[in-house]
């Protein structure tokens, strides 16, 4: 079973010297080339899921650390839902 460090390196591009923005971008976009239309659609869905999950984790962190209020989060969510 891989260690957390191995998983981070293999799945999230965690390596010495990589910029944070590049690491997040690569993790969200994935790194496997699409072979078929079906595979490309699967990868696009996976990318959407990864991006959405990251934003959910980030939003929860902002609320939990008091950087934004629940009311501010409600306003942002309502704005994108409209």
Describe the structure.
With 82 residues, this protein is an all-alpha fold. It is built from four helices and no strands. The radius of gyration is 16 Å and the shape is flat. The termini are far apart.
List keywords for this structure.
82 residues; mainly alpha; 0% strand; flat
Write the layout of secondary structure elements.
Blueprint: H1 4-12, H2 20-29, H3 37-64, H4 70-81
Task: Please trace the helix and strand order, writing H or E for each element.
Answer: HHHH
Q: How would you sum up the major sheet?
A: none
- Strand runs, count: 0
Strand content: under 5%
Describe the structure concisely for a colleague:
With 82 residues, this protein is mostly helical. 72% of the residues lie in helices and 0% in strands.
């Amino acid at each position: 079973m891989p260690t957390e460090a191995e998983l981070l390196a293999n799945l999230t591009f965690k390596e010495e010297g990589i910029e944070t923005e590049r690491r997040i971008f690569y993790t969200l976009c994935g790194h496997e080339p699409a072979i078929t239309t079906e595979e490309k659609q699967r990868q696009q869905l996976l990318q959407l899921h990864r991006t959405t999950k990251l934003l959910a984790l980030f939003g929860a962190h902002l609320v939990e650390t008091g950087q934004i209020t629940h009311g501010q989060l409600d306003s942002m969510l309502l704005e994108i839902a409209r």
